[in-house]
């Protein structure tokens, strides 16, 4: 059975804890500067980086969740730009 893509399943694919609380904590503690692309973040390992890039390149059903993760990890940077 194919699972419908979600942020929780993306975290699972990345090998990260995927409970709502774990995702919230990860997002809060891994904020990126505006000039750092999601896939260039220092905290990804090679496999995680490849997974993120492949979903974006393929523009598959997961790309929307990779984009969501990107937005969430740049929240502080976006706030600074609009402040």
Description:
With 83 residues, the protein is mainly alpha-helical. Helices cover 59% and strands 0% of the residues. The protein has 5 helices and no strands. The chain has helices at 7-13, 20-29, 46-58, 63-73, 75-82. The longest helix has 13 residues, at 46-58. The model has no long low-confidence stretch (mean pLDDT 94).
Which tags fit this structure?
single chain, about 0% strand, globular, mainly alpha, about 80 residues
Output mean pLDDT: 94
* Largest beta-sheet characterization: none
Shape verdict: globular
Order of helices and strands: HHHHH
- Spans of 5+ residues with little confidence (pLDDT < 50)? none
Q: How widely separated are the two ends?
A: 45 Å
List the total number of helices. 5
Number of strands: 0
Q: Roughly how much helix do the residues carry, as a percent range?
A: 55-70%
Classification by helices and strands? mainly alpha
How much of the polypeptide forms β-strand, as a percent range? Answer: under 5%
Radius of gyration based on Cα positions: 13 Å
